[in-house]
């Protein structure tokens, strides 16, 4: 039996079978087979998620043979991306056609479908998470049928599908609303925490801005990106640490050789800095000796997807990191109540402890999402025990 391990190594399990179909009909056949057998199907991407979204004792489905960019439209800035591609692969292929995603996260090794399905994001007050690119989808439902829908003919269902963690269907192809390819200038500075927070509102005005706080030094690294060189601000209170430029898909992410586990919560922007300061206090008092990894703070534009953590509110995220292979739950569980105190919602693809009873109160459109999910997966073919706990248990 093959053991599956996620990127960080913190999750390992043995699925009943790993399936790698080469065509759409094979995906349909697998889902129909699972329905007859009373088994579950979960789609695995690149395995970057820290949460056990793909854990299953039944069928683990890989779309590694599904790749390519179709129907690039330079006038309307749209294209169709086949669902097995990583963020990095999609960025490179779209660039060949003069197109680009509006943003990416700090990491680009995830499958784009997985990044969309978990509400993965980059940073920037005018830049929403990656799921907002999803204009239309071709997918296999929980009964093994293929359906196609988009925001023009079914806007409400698309709000559910945008951030659905594979619980409504298996995406085969995704129609994306994109941008013309763009060039980015990037600078990183080492600054004091005081200077970072004193200038936070001005720093947010850049196209992309975030900061790392280092627990053991109490210093920060601020990262700034803009499309024009003359838009890059002067930071007289900081020491320049890095400077580079290039196509957006190359400049937005950074290579990550060290692996980590992560918890991230999404806060309403007006409460985020107070939350960060309380997190900092907790870390300095209780975890400074054990935690060497920095804490990342990012800004994200609101959206209207039913289960997007940024739904209905301008947001700031705070991410905890801990070295892969080390015990992380004591640290994460100590900080999680602070996030909740300030109205935080968890990132679906990272560590958290909440279940359906707590989660449903965070999302005004929770019931609407469940109606759409049940419509496309009436037998809960895509709901493993973990997914059942997220969406059903406690309701």
From TrEMBL:
<keyword id="KW-0560">Oxidoreductase</keyword>
<dbReference type="InterPro" id="IPR016166">
    <property type="entry name" value="FAD-bd_PCMH"/>
</dbReference>
<dbReference type="InterPro" id="IPR016167">
    <property type="entry name" value="FAD-bd_PCMH_sub1"/>
</dbReference>
<feature type="domain" description="FAD-binding PCMH-type">
    <location>
        <begin position="11"/>
        <end position="181"/>
    </location>
</feature>
<dbReference type="Pfam" id="PF04030">
    <property type="entry name" value="ALO"/>
</dbReference>
<dbReference type="Pfam" id="PF01565">
    <property type="entry name" value="FAD_binding_4"/>
</dbReference>
<keyword id="KW-0274">FAD</keyword>
<keyword id="KW-0285">Flavoprotein</keyword>
<dbReference type="InterPro" id="IPR036318">
    <property type="entry name" value="FAD-bd_PCMH-like_sf"/>
</dbReference>
<dbReference type="InterPro" id="IPR010031">
    <property type="entry name" value="FAD_lactone_oxidase-like"/>
</dbReference>
<dbReference type="InterPro" id="IPR016169">
    <property type="entry name" value="FAD-bd_PCMH_sub2"/>
</dbReference>
<protein>
    <submittedName>
        <fullName>FAD-binding protein</fullName>
    </submittedName>
</protein>
<dbReference type="InterPro" id="IPR007173">
    <property type="entry name" value="ALO_C"/>
</dbReference>
<dbReference type="InterPro" id="IPR016171">
    <property type="entry name" value="Vanillyl_alc_oxidase_C-sub2"/>
</dbReference>
<dbReference type="InterPro" id="IPR006094">
    <property type="entry name" value="Oxid_FAD_bind_N"/>
</dbReference>
